[in-house]
Amino acid sequence: MNPLWPDQLSREDHVSSRGLGLAIIRVTVGGWFLKAAVFKLALTYLWWLPYPTVTQRFINFLPKRLAEFASANPILWYQQFLNETAIPNATLFAFLEAFGEVGVGIGLTLGVLTSFSALVGLFMSINFFLATQWMSFSQQGFHIVLAGCMLGFLVGRAGRAWGIDALIVKRWNNRWVQRLL
């Protein structure tokens, strides 16, 4: 019996295999977010204690990239947001982007606080789409697919079958934990 054919599975096994399929996509998308953050981060030391921070290279690069995104963006309110809010505060947005990607990446890859991670990932994907959608069809398609994955993780409650969220729900099975995760 091949466990990948749904018509040959019991209802319980069928639900588990759907969770596995969602987990594969979740881990792949989470890995992409982690990969996107790798070169934006560095370790700095406070006395002898290391802590993560954003590289100066990314902080210097981001205002130029945001100006490029704003240059001919047809969504005027978003162009205004980029020019008047994001570019003047590029250091803050560099930290938000880099650590947001790390948080979403870890959350999705491990399946911990998956719904929250997917919500943050959806917010980031929508912003990336609004910034770049006018540049090329590949930019449009990529960010729409990424947002669709995030919606799928939210609706499918990804992490509840295959992830740390599943272990937490199994250990502390009460309604608050059920709603949170």
Secondary-structure-derived class:
mainly alpha
Low-confidence stretches: none
- Overall body shape: globular
Gyration radius (Cα, Å) is 19 Å
Report the end-to-end length measured between terminal Cα atoms: 34 Å
Give the tally of structural domains: 1
Strand order of the largest sheet: 1-2
The overall average pLDDT, rounded, is 87
Number of helices: 8
What share of residues are in beta strands?
5-15%
| Succession of helices and strands | HEEHHHHHHH
**Biggest β-sheet: count, sense, barrel?**
2 strands, antiparallel
The total beta strand count reads: 2
Describe the 3D structure.
This protein is mainly alpha-helical and 181 residues long. The chain has one domain. Helix content is 71%, strand content 7%. It has a two-stranded antiparallel ribbon. α2 runs antiparallel to α3 and α5 packs antiparallel against α6. It is globular, with a radius of gyration of 19 Å. The mean pLDDT is 87.
